[in-house]
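Human: Respectfully, please carefully check these tokens:
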Amino acid sequence: MAQCFMHLHLNLRPVIHILGLMLMALAAVMLIPLIVEQLIEGHENAGFEEGAIVTGFFGLLIFLASREEGELQLDLKQAFLLTALSWMVLPIFAAIPLTGVEQDSGVWLSFTDAVFETVSGITTTGSTVLSGLDHLSPGFLVWRSLLNWIGGIGIIVMAIVMLPFLRIGGMQLFRSESSDRSEKIAPNAGQIVAWITGVYAALTLVCAAAFYLTGMSGFDAINHAMATLATGGFSTHDASFGYFGVAAQWVAIVFMIAGALPFVAYIKFVRGRRRAFYEEPQVRAFLLFLFVVIVLGATYMASQSGQGFGEALTRVAFNVVSVVTTTGFATEDYSLWGTWAVAGFFLLMFVGGCAGSTSGAIKIYRFQVLWIILRNQLQRLTSPNRVIPLTFGAARVGEGLLLSVLAFMAAFFASVALITLLLALMDIDFVTALTAAATAITNVGPGLGTIIGPAGNFAPLPDMAKWLLCFAMLLGRLEIFVLFMLFDPHFWKD
């Protein structure tokens, strides 16, 4: 194996070594649904036992084969390669327990469907090929929720620790929160991860307790808390949150928003900076955007349908927050509300939450930077000799940052267009192709139309389309350029 590494300029040994460790950790996590199955059903699920053995074996094998003497260190290229590989490899092994016949319901999943489900889970997209969720085994359901939860914390760590180094799409605005020497929220990356894990776990427990108080069973409360904080959207019922009452829906609204806020602000708040959230320009813009869209939508729905404003507010607020935060829960098929809702929810797919959160899509701060670019251009047209300082909150905005945001937006929408075209070449109708591409890259979950809309799922799509959408989900989750880097020959050279 050592000779395999000699043909590449980039040293893969530490990357493979850590990937093996991650696979062993994944195998250990597979024991959780195994235990749940034993406690609730009184028997073990052979799929998770086999999955843990296979995953642990391969993890241990490559861990031992790639070890070397001395302290293990990663340079920046190796760290980004590890990030990309972990998001691609872990879902494949996570799919092993889901492949085949699910013992309680008789549902059969091909390897393609199982990988689609795990990629959707770990990228917190929430798209699914499954129906009959109410009859699936407890271990099966817990595994889906765990993938959401693990993916959520992985997204936060990647956004705060890794992406500022890449300087893509404006993430360098938040470099002072993660990697800059002048102002750090913790002395090193390890402490940052520890703080994130603590805050994330605490919010999940509070969310589960709140769900339980609304009348959810303990099982449903824990599963939905994991999916809600991760803005992942996997549910234990086919009706999603339509299965639960209004109180549970409002709890979900609060914690979906909580998952879409920057976790750096949570850490600062816990460490004593009580104005941490207010000081974040993206938080203020995000909450204001949600407030305006929800109030306008509820007012219009109430006037059109004749129902009370309170009922309309609950229906609109839940589904708007779910789509904007890229969670993907639903209480009903909102495409039946009218063409205004179809157009509105399609546009809301692209918004997303804050940087450094579990949310996907474009993110609110990039729209703020685009506004800065537009405003600056308009001012230059009227006053070409005027020197206009560009700022985002307290941070000075340079030309490089503006170009990076424009580059990200161009790559983002080009990716949506390309995936749409490829899906259309598979004889998938235009609405399904477009919204499937959009919902995969934005990590929202449901699309629009009769097939993949809020009342449908992705099972009818051909296998080739599912693999393409798996790539699209990873592309969007890794902020486009993390995967694009792997296709650059210069990346593999010293």
In short: The longest helix spans residues 138-166. Confidence is low (pLDDT under 50) at residues 1-7, 169-173, 175-186. The radius of gyration is 22 Å. The longest strand covers residues 100-101.
